[in-house]
Amino acid sequence: MPAPTRAVAGAASGFSRRLVPCSRPQLASLSRSLTRLLPPTSTASSPWPTSRCHSTFSSVNPNEVSHFTALAAEWWEPHGSSRLLHLMNPLRHDLIRACLSESPPSSPPYSPPSSSPSASASASASSSSGISTGIPDNSITYLDIGCGGGIFAESAARLPTTKHVTAIDPTPSVLAVAKAHARKDPSLAGKLSYQLTSVEQLPIPADEGQGYDVVTLFEVIEHVDDPAAFLDRVRPLVRPGGWLVMSTIARTWISWLTTNLIAEDILRIVPPGTHDWNKYVNEDELRGFLAGKGWDSARVVGVVYVPGLGWREVKGSEKVGNYFFAVRKV
Question: Which residues constitute the signal peptide according to the record (predicted)?
Answer without folding.
Answer: none
